[in-house]
Design brief:
Structural class: alpha+beta
Strand order of the largest sheet: 3-2-1-4-5
Radius of gyration: 12 Å
Strand content: 25-35%
Number of helices: 4
């Protein structure tokens, strides 16, 4: 799956997320490897947006392979297990990363 295809899936998923109880959350996703890239997901005033840019003022950054990210996005990879096994790395507030993963579920 190319980075562009991943971004399309993320933007589709963003439309499904109920973020009505979240005031602000900004998560940068760093995808490693051949089809990798950087994008962010921002939740502001209950609205979710995803754009293919770095986010300097982020709550946290999550780094993983594109394959593992797609499993995570599809609910087939538990984020806590992925974190403890090294498939997912968090830079910044781990609590915010967990909040993000709960919203994606």
């Amino acid at each position: 799956m190319t980075f562009k295809e991943i971004m399309t899936k993320v933007q589709e998923k963003a439309k499904e997320i109920d973020a009505s109880k979240t005031n602000f959350l900004a998560v940068q996703i760093n995808l490693t490897g051949e089809n990798g890239g950087v994008f962010y997901v921002e939740i502001k005033d209950g609205k979710v947006s995803a754009e293919p840019y770095e986010y300097n003022d982020r709550s946290c950054a999550i780094t993983m392979s594109p394959e593992n990210f797609m499993k995570f996005l599809g609910g087939k990879l538990d984020p806590v297990l992925a974190f403890t096994t090294g498939k997912l790395k968090v830079d910044g507030d781990v609590g915010k990363a967990l909040e993000f993963s709960n919203l994606v579920k």
